[in-house]
Amino acid sequence: MKTIKGYQGLAVLSPEGSVLAVDSPGNAIDFKNFAFDFNNMMIHCNKTVRTKGFEQCTGFTVHTKKGVIVMMSSDVYKHGNFRFIGLMSPEGNGYFLQVQLEKIIPQILSAS
Q1: What is the CATH number of the domain that holds 36?
Q2: CA 96 to each of CA 1, 3, 59, 111: distance values in angstroms, whole numbers, following the listed order
Q3: What is the pTM for the complete model shown?
């Protein structure tokens, strides 16, 4: 992940939004400061998309002037209900981070 342009960090969250693990090269990022709120956004996203017939919310991306935030969840039935928050600088490629997360989430969870 560290080789992705603009990568600033990644956190693994419990289903309740508690930070379980962090990878943050350079400056340490305080994921605890916003992990709970983003976890709640995932819960609301999931409820909303299900009522609209889109099934489960597997993730979302937020773009701000200060960065890109990618939130994804693991497969509930295969790997539990863990959440992942990836942070990138504004010039970072959020889609590439998302693709990489889709590849490594099963690897991370099968190693534990």
Answers
A1: 3.30.450.30
A2: 10, 11, 14, 23
A3: 0.83
Q: What are phi and psi of 7, to 5 degrees?
A: -60, 130
DSSP reduced 3-state for 98: helix
Q: Around Cβ 37, how many Cβ atoms within 10 Å?
A: 9
pLDDT in tens, 3-29: 888 999 999 998 888 999 998 887 778
Domain range for residue 79? Answer: 7-24+31-111
Do the domain assignments include residue 73?
A: yes
**Does some domain include residue 2?**
no
Question: pLDDT of 52-72, one tens digit each?
Answer: 999 888 899 999 999 999 999
Domain for residue 63, yes or no? yes
